[in-house]
Please model this.
Amino acid sequence: MRKFRRAIMAVAIGAAAIAIVAPGSTEAQAVTPLAPLFHGSVLKHAKVGHAFHATVAAKGRPVAAITATTALPAGLTFTDLGTGKGTLAGTFAVPGTFVVGFQATNTEGTATESLTVTVTGIAAVSTYCGQRTGAPTTSKVMVIYEENHSYSSIIGSASAPTINSYAQSCGKATSYQALTHPSLPNYMASTSGVSYASSPWSSDCTPSVSCSTANNNIFNQVGPTHWKSYAESMTSNCSGSGSSVAARHIPAEYYTNLASSCATNVVPLGTTTSGALHTDVAAGTLPTVTTVSPNLLNDMHDGTITQGDNWLSTWMPVITSGPDYQSGHLTILIVWDEGSGSGNTASTVAMLAISPYVVPGTSSATAFTHYSLLKAEEDVAGVSELGLAATANSLRTAFGF
Model:
């Protein structure tokens, strides 16, 4: 077969072949289209604070477009070069193992692949806390719920470098107790001040006529324009459904007195670059009380501690760079719903307080519970303390926000 140094490619529309015609020749050679095929999984290594660059490539005819299918680690960007290759580049801020998914697509099909990067080094201590002194101007609270890990499995864990950097440079509670097991009773108690350690709540029931309540709650207290719940991967407003979504992690959906506001206030989270939370953060329009529920992989319920840590490492820079946080109005509380164990028993979990007013390195051994979480929200909102929140110890006093 004659080889040509140069060739002109002509694509036959609707045909299952590509014709390659040499200059001056009337003969065409058919080339069969090819679905994308990645060159194989890749393992890379990087260091914190050092420039990183990796190329992802996929064969295919026509040339495949390549996109990232997972959230990128903080400090990294991905660029499709339009040649069947793409570049992942930037600088890692924290150590750990990061898995980034990719998809290649052309007219013949799709293919998926992942890139695993092991990052070594020491995480830079966050500068989120301690920038402000004097009387706090906190007027908004965001609660980020994590899942199913005791204090001892998070604080000090090599799998959670980002979380531990927050614990060191902001505030942590060392004696914070989740109230019971499983998840739902803890979420409900933390928003209403009432114990739900009984049937049907103790079976993690889904919202229904038999699994709902008219009890007062923080959302109802502040009113429909002053609260919002953001749920990652949820398909539509107030649906509690979607891939890796659990309604039991979205407490607002269980309160009958929120029926009219749920459809507008319980919303899909979006991504770090677009969607409901990004929009509200960037505009400085977060309401008085917000809850954030990562999906089951990123809240550590079905995923790993590393996955949850990576998720926080991508979202926290976005949230803390917004006007609400920068002005000193927003405090972020990160808390785990329950630790190890089962039945109606308490468990010690991690709770982090992040605010420009929190003195870096604050550590409190005061006995806190999920009722303390509710108390903090109510005190910031200026509403009465419901049920057992009234006698709970104060997070605001301990952490100064």
Q: What stands out?
A: Residues 1-32 form one domain.
